[in-house]
Amino acid sequence: MAENAAVEISDDRERGSLTAHEDGKAAGTIAYFVMEPAPGALVAVHTVVRPEHEGKGIAGALVREFYAIAAREGVPVVPLCPYAAKWAQRHPEEAPEAPEELVREAERQLRNHPELF
Length: 117
Description:
Elements: E1 8-12, E2 17-22, E3 25-34, E4 42-49, H1 58-73, E5 77-79, H2 82-90, H3 100-110
Parallel strand pairs: 4-5
Antiparallel strand pairs: 1-2, 2-3, 3-4
C-alpha cells in the first residue's frame, strides 16, 4: 500500500498525540508518551486509523513521521504499539532498534499512564 502524500501530520506533544489529517479531518493517530527523564525516548503505545481511511498508508505515514521526529530530536523510539513494532521490523533503515533495557523501562513507565490503555 502506497503512503498517501495528501496526508498532513501534526504533533501535539502535550497530549501525546501524532495525528494524520486527510482533507482537513482526522484520519489516524499514534498515542504516545515521552519517557522520563525527558527526553528519554518517544514511546508509541497505539496506532489507530479510522475505518474509512484504512488501506491508504496512513498508519505507515504516521509511524514513519514518528521515527523522523525522534531522529530530529536525537532520541530513540520504543514501539510498544504492535503496528509500530512490525513497521520498524520492516524498515530497519528508518527505525533503529531500542536497547532492551530502554524497552523494559518504557513498559514500566507505561503503567504510570493509565490514560493510554
